[in-house]
Amino acid sequence: MLYREAGDFKTSYVADSQTFPIKFDRYGYYVLLGFAFLVMPLIINDYWANSIVVPFLIYAIAALGLNILIGYCGQLSLGTGGFMAVGAYASYKMMTAFPELNIIFVIIIAGMVTACVGVLFGLPSLRIKGFYLAVATLAAQFFLIWLFTRTAWFYNYSPTGMISAPTREVFGVPVTGPRASAVSMYMICLCFLVASAWLARNLTRGSMGRKWMAIRDMDIAAEIIGVNPLIAKLTAFAVSSFLVGISGALLFAVYLGAAEAGEAFGIDKSFLVLFMVIIGGLGSIFGAFAGAAFLIVGPVLLKLLLVNSLGWPTDLAAHLEIMIVGALIIVFLIVEPHGIAALWRTIKEKLRLWPFPY
Amino acid sequence: MPDTLLFALEASLNGLTAGVMYALVALGFVLIFKASGIFNFAQGVLALFAALTLVGFQSGQIPFSHLINATLGTRLHHFGWNMPTVLAIPATVLVMIGLAILVERFILKHLINQEPIILFMATIGLAYFLEGFGDIMWGAEVKALDVGLPKGMSMAVDDATFNWFGYGFYIDRLEIWAAGIAAVLVAVLTVFSQYTKQGRALRAVADDHQAALSVGISLRFIWVLTWSIAGIVALVAGIMWGSKSGVQFSLSLIALKALPVLILGGFTSIPGAIVGGLIIGVGEKLFDFFMNPIIGGATENWFAYMLALVFLLFRPQGLFGERIIERV
Amino acid sequence: MKMTRLAATLAATMVVAGPTLADTLHFPSLSYRTGPFAAGGIPFADGYSDYLTLINERDGGIGGVPIRQTECETAYNTERGVECYQSIRNDNPLVIQPLSTGITYQLIPRTMEDGIPMHTMGYGRTSAVNGEVFNWTFNYPANYWDGASVIINYLLDENDGSLEGKKIALLYHNSAYGREPIPTLERLAERHGYEFLSIGVDSPGQEQGSQWLQIRRERPDYVVMWGWGVMNPTAIQEAANIRFPMENFIGVWWSGSQQDVRPVGDGAHGYKALAMHGTGMDYPIYEDMQRYVIDAGKYAGTGDEVGTVLYSRGMYAAMLAVEAAKKAQEIHGVAAITPAMMRDGMANLEITEELMVELGLPNFGPAFSVACENHGGSGAAMIQQWDAQAGEWNLITDWIDPDRELIMEMAMDDSIAYAAENNISPACLN
Known about the structure:
The structure holds three protein chains of three kinds.
Chain A: H1 13-16, H2 23-43, H3 46-72, H4 80-97, H5 103-122, H6 130-150, E1 163-164, E2 169-170, E3 173-174, H7 182-205, H8 207-217, H9 219-224, H10 229-256, E4 258-259, H11 261-264, H12 267-280, H13 285-309, H14 314-335, H15 339-353
Antiparallel strand pairs in A: 1-4, 2-3
Chain B: H1 3-36, H2 43-59, H3 65-72, H4 85-106, H5 116-138, H6 155-165, H7 173-195, H8 197-207, H9 209-214, H10 219-245, H11 254-265, H12 270-295, H13 300-314
Helix pairs in contact in B: 1-7, 1-8, 1-10, 1-11, 1-12, 2-4, 2-5, 2-10, 4-10, 7-8, 7-10, 8-10, 11-12, 11-13, 12-13
Chain C: H1 2-14, E1 25-31, H2 38-59, E2 67-73, H3 78-88, H4 101-114, E3 118-119, E4 137-138, H5 144-158, E5 167-173, H6 176-179, H7 181-192, E6 195-201, H8 209-218, E7 222-226, H9 231-241, E8 249-251, H10 258-261, E9 272-275, H11 285-294, H12 309-332, H13 339-347, E10 350-351, H14 353-358, E11 368-369, E12 382-387, E13 392-395, H15 404-421
Parallel strand pairs in C: 1-2, 3-4, 5-6, 5-7, 7-8, 8-9
Antiparallel strand pairs in C: 9-12, 10-11, 12-13
């Protein structure tokens, strides 16, 4: 009743294969986009932007990237933190070496650099599979972090090894550095997220995405029907790392402002993004958003509830928070192993018939 | 003999003993992977939890005292007695068995027939949960763990090598003990899995869940059994590592040292875990010894992974892993 | 109904802006009671909170205005630290103490922009001693470079004024924090002619086998340690294992607390560390503390950290903050001070020996004064030594002054570079 497709006819293949085939969905999507671009900047306050919305947008990009690798191409990776660090350090080097270069290009180039590094570390995937590959990608994680903390060139020989983002502007509005306002940070992250989601969606439903999925479902069979595993796997690593690199660059330049490889891009980051992908739902664009929202907003809400509203000691609250997040992961896996995206699909199915089921 | 050679020899000896310490953690992973096909990420946290529980019993700490104090306004700390180690260790073993039963009851039972990655994720969830739970139960401060194991430089080795080479080698007595304990552990586990009824059942489950079920082996019992054994191995690893640097949060991170050992040795092989540990231990110590002047130290974190990675390129299933046969 | 109330409280807590509570002085505490460094974070947070509670209970606040404490858990994680800062910054926080070098670097530009003073006591960005560039950041009474220099001065003293031909190794936590003393120690090596060797340990530092084998091979005369968390007890254990003479092993003030030596047992006997303040219960203030806070059951945490080194440090930080607030009240003649007034109080802070006695903390901290050109106090520190049998730290020297000239020169270079990078024209505020 609320959600119906009756009377929604398609007269061409193009119309039939669009992202949101149902009118209701499509308009909902437009409304959401309009809200995000037009209304949110007016109502967002600093606390919301800085603790919830901006990190959500940035991690959603990382989750999109990792989802391409794991969810679409079936290559388990635990090197996300390391690749984010590549994005961050690449953007730092670009920002300091070419001060007049626009920050948007800096971030895109940082993504490309990360893509190259990703391809390099993706090479072993041609021979190694499954958990073995996951552990092998940890080599990338630890090696990259070691490289960035050891090699002084990467942090411009600063005595502490911290990198900090100078102020850069887009259309005269500072988006990085201390003078950047919450709204400008929000807007630049949102633009990158929308572009990334558009890119991811269109790649995954095109021939490239189909090749990835063929490799995921059974690589030998895919090879037999003519999918080149070398190209398919490496393009997946490239695209995935590109998005992860962009999110790393945004995390450092826009959100954190200063970072240190071992602390900001440690192994925890790899796991965090992996959780987002799995809880959100493997192989689903919506899942990446849902997973990021769940793991970024959830802990903050829990903290606000336990500490600010119930007045618990912060340490108990923090311990409980970890326990609750852990328990929720388990509950989710038991109830819906395919993530929030699958849950959402089920809800949609139900809503189609509601309130008159058969 | 030239000094460099002596130093390198000393470094490799230390690598061997360090490798045993890694292997102790890796053993727990292998046991669970063999029996249930689960890559148990919570193994490191299990070791931390076991060590925390052991120290808690030894010092007579009241569990959850902080939580109780915060909610009821009381001031509880300790029961006021100290449990001798011989009692505390069996008590901890009981707790670990209880934990295994709970894990089976609340998690594994509901996840039968799921893909490996889902089970892997579930253990990560478990790791988070236990991390918070252990802290709430026993507190987050550093605790000293002493079960009477000797520590410090072994004078016997020092004297012997000094007499032979004119340079005394350094070996930690704790690590010599660890090697002995690991040997005993592997022997016991092998005997158990080869010669007892439960052990055979365990191997049957490892081979094929469905076939094992059809000949009347209780899958749930076997899972409780493996998780209990893994918990006990975790306790051993927790004792060894905890004696080294105290019991606190970072103990859970030793899992990360065990992963390259695992891929090197193969996920399913107990001897593989030992041999893998030794190779990684010696490899990283020697690499550090020779490369330190050139590229700087602290390479241990990644070298093990790189070594494992290069190794995998030639043998994708690890040293002793079962051959991967793929069919369409 | 229940849900809406919950939602309402949530909404209310999130919109932290709004009217400021002028009738209290807000002292936030960014603590870490969880995560890998919890063992160090807990006692500090307890000491900080207990001292403020004492001031409230005994004196009724500062200048008659009660103190309001809030605590936010960072888990030593920069992102959570930023979240904490955002959640309190509109709530008139008088001084931010991030308790982590990483978080400090994040917050330096933000606090500058927002006009909130930040105090990083014994950590953070060393070049913040130049108050003309870092108007809102203070790092009195001592910083890392001071610490490195104090250790060298102490060793000079031990060796009759010459370190010629000696070998000194630095075992450091491979992070921004651990690398801080390297430039200072290198500069001092040129001056005093000792051989300098730096050995990094990757976080968390549970595995130090190769590092100590290296130390054993290289046979340095002294080992200096910049460690934190589990790295400390592990290093002390390894040093005991290779029978490195403990009295030649000196840690920075973050590597010299009970948590670091206790797990090692007797092997740690004789280990030395820097002390930027006194420790133990032999100070008159503990009578009041016992009466007003401990016995009244108003202590923070579990109450079993009282008197430990890091507890004392938290207490010292709180004491300096309270004194700065008093100074600010005195300068502005207002009791309910704002963060900007607090900054003035900190910038003109003067701690004398008489004042320390008056506070019940005789000779607990050094006498120093803060000025716009010097936000770093005196930089003096003492050396303490661990007595494993008695289970306590003993101070074995008086206050040792660092080589301030060199440090100011290096800090000036670094801060001017920072100013140029960020378009700051160095100047004193008012």
